[in-house]
What we know:
Blueprint: H1 2-8, H2 17-46, H3 56-104, H4 108-112, H5 116-137, H6 139-158, H7 160-167, H8 170-207, H9 209-214, H10 218-255, H11 257-271, H12 276-317, E1 334-342, E2 348-357, E3 362-366, H13 373-380, E4 388-393, E5 396-397, H14 403-407, E6 410-413, E7 422-423, H15 424-429, H16 437-446, H17 450-454, E8 463-464, H18 473-487, E9 491-495, H19 503-516, E10 521-525, E11 537-542, E12 545-550, H20 552-557, H21 561-573
Parallel strand pairs: 3-10, 3-11, 6-9, 9-10
Antiparallel strand pairs: 1-2, 1-4, 4-5, 7-8, 11-12
Amino acid sequence: MRKLIWQFTFHHPKEVVWPTVWLFLSQVASMFPAVLAYMAIYILGAAFLPPFELDLSLLIELAAVGLGYVLVQYLVELLSYYQTYVRAYRDTADKRIAYIQKLRRQPLGFFFSRESGELTSSFAGDFANVEYTLCYWLPYPLGVGLLLVISCIWICAYDWRMGIAIFGMLPICSLLMLRIARVKEKHSRQVMEAKTKAATQLNEYLHGMKDLKAYHRTGSGFAALKEAFWILRKESLKDEAVAGSLSTLCSALVKFIVPVTAAWGFYLLLGGSLTILDFAGFLVLATKLTEPVLMVVTSISALRGMAPSGERLDQVMSAEEQPGAETVEKGDSYSFEKVVFHYERGKEIIRDVSFETPSGSFTALVGPSGSGKSTLIRLMARFWDYQSGSVRMNERELKSILPESLLSQISMVMQKAYLFRGTIRENLCFGDSGITEERMLNACQKARCHEFIAALPEGYDTVVGEGGATLSGGERQRISLARAFLKDVPILLLDEPTASLDADNEAMVQLALDEIARERTVVMIAHRLKTVRGAEQILVLEDGQIIQKGTHEELKRQPGLYARLWALQSEAGSHTFKQEKWR
């Protein structure tokens, strides 16, 4: 129980104290009608005993107390609702924000080591379980359990024989409940894994729809998704069938308390060791206590079923964040010294790499696919941390810098610019309310995207689809460059920004790049070598190592990979596609 509380409260177990207290008070208030009924039975029963008189004043007082109880119960229930449900919803909302903040501080490796559907499934499903657990499943066994303990002590003190009759079924129910809890946890874990697989398959199917349609594979591509949903269906049915049947049995045993109490009380009544009034009172209490006992049994079983959700959320909240606490006011240079990097349990992607990017310089990274160019860019942005060696920004070790402070010095333009669903204005400003209209228009003019945006029906308020699906690749790339202008930072990292563009868009983007690169430190990945002929240094990578370094003219004259790539691209530029036709 302690572990579950620790996980579901995100390491703040005191959160369940007040909900438990108020739920206990609410349950005490709900028991009061049974006490009133018990007292009414005694008052009415006295009329059938010598001197056979009914004390109406006591009944009137009891009725007045009953009316007062209605008001008290309303207030207690209201406060209990606020302290349990409302508080749980508010705390869960805070936990969702804390969860996202935690994800924001994780390196990219954290996300790549997980299936695409795991985090989305966790955010949607696990937090729904947290919400229900905080407002229901956790307070109930604690608050109601305390009420049952007090009731057991009081009833046994009054008449231990009837106490055994009422609570004698609890040990059997407890053993069965533990069995149900273990079964429920096992099947809940399997259902959760099936949901994650189904969510991952659905993500892949939707994101790959364009390719599936292009290759006429929407049917065969759906097979894996269909299989994932069939597995989810099977696991869900198994969970309900096994745990449900055991829960029904346990519920029946709990409800058996009333007939056992009646039979045992009747036996004592016939033996003369129990009065008719006590018998009736105990029967009323047994009827009223059945529901709390059932609630505790159900809650503990459900809690174990929620345990996998708590564990999965706790894995994220306990994940180690990137170290670093220093801030950088202005970072405009990099220094790599014997850097080695590999992904989790993988081969080395970067091996013994050393170079410098002086302030205001233009450095190009070239080489065949898989040589480590994009990885170097990502190490500069601290998307991952290197295993050995040293990377410095203005003489400060990168690992000692706060990631948010580091990223505040960098603008990145990727090969495929991503736009969020929303207006073009929202995508440009990225939530920065300090960006003025004049500044935004100026950035778009420099990025050569103002004309096509102004020509749209709604201009800057035109809504673009998720990923910028309603715009062309060149248009998305120029908007991405405008964002870089607006960020206005000293370092610009470019990952092949013109790779997939046509000649017109490439020319426009190249002009924008020339504009944005002024007085900035630029590191650019390029496959088209003509785009980096003006670089002050070109680093040629192969198999994660720098094999050549120099300017375009120097490397072109040296025998080696760069000269071969230049010759191949020069030859390809003059190549014409030939097509032969046969009759």
